[in-house]
Design goal:
- The protein is mainly alpha-helical and 107 residues long.
- Helices cover 70% and strands 9% of the residues.
- It has a two-stranded antiparallel ribbon.
- The longest helix is centred in the middle third of the chain and has 39 residues, at 47-85.
- The relative contact order is 0.16.
């Protein structure tokens, strides 16, 4: 995306949302899973830790939604730029080299 400055900046913004969302989501999921595993294994479950995990997971949701929104916008901007510069007329070349017959299509 570096060739399209606007799309690249949008993707950098998306990336800045991705990292904290991933960190909070991973920590939250780990804390929840740890306590559920303890519960299912018959151990003493600390529901406060599970509650902290739920809060961390909830914090990750806005970051993830923002990442998705910005990443989709970056892709849309980039693809629109490709459509404007694309040459959609194919060039067809027939070749008859010594090894056989060849066809080459370029867009």
């Amino acid at each position: 995306m570096k060739s399209n400055t606007e799309a690249y900046e949008e993707m950098k913004l998306a990336k800045s949302k991705f990292d904290p969302g991933t960190i909070y989501g991973t920590i939250g999921g780990g804390l929840i899973g740890w306590q559920l595993g303890t519960y299912l294994g018959g151990g003493k479950t600390n529901w406060i830790v599970a509650g902290i995990g739920i809060c961390a997971t909830a914090i990750s949701i806005p970051y993830t939604r923002s990442y998705n929104r910005h990443a989709k916008k970056a892709v849309r901007i980039y693809n629109e730029g490709l459509r404007k510069t694309a040459n959609l007329k194919p060039n067809i070349h027939f070749n008859i080299p010594l090894q056989g017959i060849g066809i080459r299509i370029r867009f």
